[in-house]
């Protein structure tokens, strides 16, 4: 059975989370093998937090979990695409729907392009 | 002016390419600062090839370039999302529309989920 290649980037696999219903790209984070196995076991996306150096159950604090709808793997098995149902409607810790909320305009300025869904001060007390 | 943070991953920035019209995620690859600048200058996506250790003008061989339609940056400035028009209709060197052409089924098997668009033997002579 083919599995993602965790060795290529020192044990970490980049994972793209895409909202299944809309096709919006929500975030990119990383899984180690433990996070991969926990994602498969629970049906909710788990990542490896590089800053906290620990397993990260996305939404474990806020309740805004990501329910797995499909899992895809790329041609060289070093990246995974998960299509998810984003509970709470926002993936970003800033309260925006997508972490990719800044768009570059023709003058090289960054402007907001993703709506604010929740107030982080209310969610992360 | 805020710019992507190239230092976080040793000079390389993960870049998600998404088809602008359909929302389909096509591939993930990496840019160094030179590739970033060339992308902005030309309006066609350039990556850094980790295997060949060189600037990689996507589609330079096959003609299947990626025309930039928008550029987004994530909350911690370490990942970029480019929405593109994929000339030729296929991003993957295998001839499939998307590099994410394998989907995991409930039994853990991988099945093809992205159509074959061209014959790689015809394109890469």
Overview of the structural elements:
Two copies of one chain form a homodimer. In chain A, a hairpin with a 5-residue loop joins strand 1 (13-19) and strand 2. Chain A is built from two helices and eight strands, in the order E-E-H-E-E-E-E-E-E-H. A four-stranded mixed beta sheet of chain A has the order 2-1-6-5. Chain A has a two-stranded antiparallel ribbon with strand order 3-4. The mean pLDDT of chain A is 94. Chain A has 125 residues and is mostly beta strands. Chain A has one domain (6-117): Ubiquitin-like (UB roll), CATH 3.10.20. Chain A has helices at 33-42, 120-123; strands spanning 13-19, 25-31, 46-49, 54-57, 66-73, 80-86, 102-104, 110-112. Helices cover 11% and strands 34% of the residues of chain A.
């Amino acid at each position: 059975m083919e599995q993602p290649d965790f060795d290529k980037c020192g044990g970490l696999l980049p994972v793209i989370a895409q909202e299944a219903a809309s096709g919006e790209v929500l975030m990119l984070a990383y899984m180690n093998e433990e996070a991969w196995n926990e994602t498969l076991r629970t049906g909710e996306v788990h990542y490896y937090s590089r800053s906290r150096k620990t397993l990260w159950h996305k939404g474990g604090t806020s309740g805004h979990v990501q329910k797995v709808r499909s899992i895809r793997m790329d041609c060289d098995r070093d990246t995974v695409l998960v299509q998810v149902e984003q509970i709470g409607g926002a993936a970003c810790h800033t309260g925006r729907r997508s972490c990719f909320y800044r768009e570059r305009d023709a003058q090289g300025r960054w402007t907001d392009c993703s709506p604010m869904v929740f107030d982080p001060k209310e969610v992360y007390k």
